[in-house]
Amino acid sequence: MDTVVKRNNQGVEASPLRLPFTHYLDYKYVGEKRRGLSAQEQTFLINGRPVPHSHHPMSLHGTRTKKARPRVQLTEEHARRLRLPTIDERSSDVTRIIFPNGRVNYVLLARRHSKCPALRALHKHMDERGPELDDFLSKLDKIRLLKDDLGGGRYVVSGFGNMGKNVPPSVRPPNQPALRKSLKLSEHKELAKQVGQIFSHVSECIAMHCGKVHHENQGLMENHDLVWPSLKYQGRKWKWMCSQFIVRRWGPALASPDWPLEKEIVAAHTDPGDVDSTTFNCYISGGGRSGKGGPVAGTDLAVFEHARGGAGFRTKTCIRDTVVVVVTNSRRQLHGCIKDDEDFVEDASAWTTRIIPYIPQGVYNWMKHHPKGTPYVEIP
Questions:
Q1: At how many degrees (to 10) do helices 211-218 and 185-209 cross?
Q2: Are 173 and 167 in contact (CB under 8 A)?
Q3: How far apart are CA 99 and CA 32, in angstroms?
Q4: pLDDT digits (tens, 9 = 90+) for 80-120
Q5: Fewer CB within 10 A of the terminal residue: the chain, N end or C end?
Q6: Using CA of residue 76, residue 81, residue 86, residue 90, what is the dihedral sign?
Q7: Which helix (H) or strand (E) holds 81?
Q8: 154 and 354 in contact (C-beta within 8 Å)?
Q9: Could you say which DSSP state residue 5 is in?
Q10: Residue 166: its pLDDT value, please?
Q11: pTM score, whole prediction
């Protein structure tokens, strides 16, 4: 790790982590014109040599409505071969990751005693209001959970999608963004109220420690009516431009026999349907023996420098009494969870909650051409 330390305007030490191009992944999963390759056509190389690998069961078989899009499931063996440097509870509150190609990511650890007031405020908010979010998610009907055949797992989605292909022009303009029908209107609003406050706190943390990222995000706010959670729900001074977000939850405390861990872990993938921008993933560990979270199998996140891999780093996302924020570009950078070895010891009473915001490219295109247009929200 680079020994140079950068001090920002909050008096917090930001530890730079420079990734050498010594160990690298080369994962080819798409062909010309972004056509997805079958599992047999794909190549998966570490340091130029093919290594054993398997594909996530959901991405391999797809769903009833979507064709299969095979994606490799990263494992501990892959992480060992790549010698991924790890950001965990021993790391500084702020780590700045510099890739060989010049790309920069950040990992922010919001702790009870963080030196930065914004990080402390984010931790305090989740400590006090997190149980409300857990309660809401626990009461949601299972039919509200969508299956992800690109990355794997299940999630709750809220926000504006471009759903014109399924709506006759007599109902609304065919390309007008609308609230996703995966939730009832009342559920959209309740979830947005809770997540909006989290976004506001995270936005302040990013402004304090990743100023360029925050500035670029604010420049995407072409139409305030397409911000979700809405500016009203974000409420505080700090805002984050997002039109849609998902929430994932899993862990032994939430496990069900009909949905094994192998399906819940997220495979290595990019998100080509999102706007090309840097955003954040927010990770909270709940429950646990102490009530402050605990280790959950398959939750460490690997992030690489570009779509096919390259150099990478690893973040422990389930850290007791800590909110973990990873700032990255999910469209440009390959990312996914690392499946633990069988001897991994997890906390049987813990779970993970993961909040991931983004802007669908179709919604953003509409927003740029309709800076004063309003989305369609008339759903049941």
A1: 140
A2: no
A3: 26
A4: 999 999 999 999 999 999 999 999 999 999 999 999 999 99
A5: C
A6: positive
A7: helix 76-82
A8: no
A9: -
A10: 58
A11: 0.93
